[in-house]
Design brief:
Length: 137
């Protein structure tokens, strides 16, 4: 019992620091994306727009998956911060690329068209999963 408690006491501060770093990167990425999006996605979600809800939910998952991969191969807090930030910018680039391919999606999401939003969400999640596996090696 004592070794387990010692392990917890030694590891808990590191766990908290790692979580704080990836949470900060996640929030920054979320803010950047919502600023880049031409429509007010959070307002649409609050109004009950299902297409915006699908898209925003995929955004949350898509930003989280590569960050989780950064935690798998961590060497230090600095390492996680560097890889996490890099993965966030790569993910935002992939999002913009996907948005460029699917022209007219902001209006379709505003119009509450769920089917196109679901396809867009799937592409963003797929890119996120591929990025995560590339990071994890």
């Amino acid at each position: 019992m004592r070794p387990a408690l010692d392990s917890l006491a030694n590891g808990l501060p590191y766990l908290i620091f790692y979580l704080l770093v990836v949470t900060a990167i996640f929030i920054i990425g979320l803010v950047i994306y919502t600023k880049l999006t031409p429509h007010k996605e959070l307002e649409l979600v609050q109004q009950g727009n299902m297409a915006a809800s699908i898209h925003f939910s995929s955004l949350i998952l898509s930003l989280t998956i590569p960050l989780a991969a950064c935690l798998i191969k961590r060497f230090s807090l600095f390492d996680v911060a560097i890889w996490g930030t890099t993965s966030m910018f790569l993910q935002l680039f992939l999002f913009r690329l996907t948005d460029a391919i699917f022209k007219g999606m902001p209006q379709r999401i505003t119009n509450n068209e769920s089917a196109p939003a679901l396809v867009l969400a799937s592409f963003k999640l797929a890119g996120s999963i591929l990025l995560a596996f590339a990071i994890a090696g």
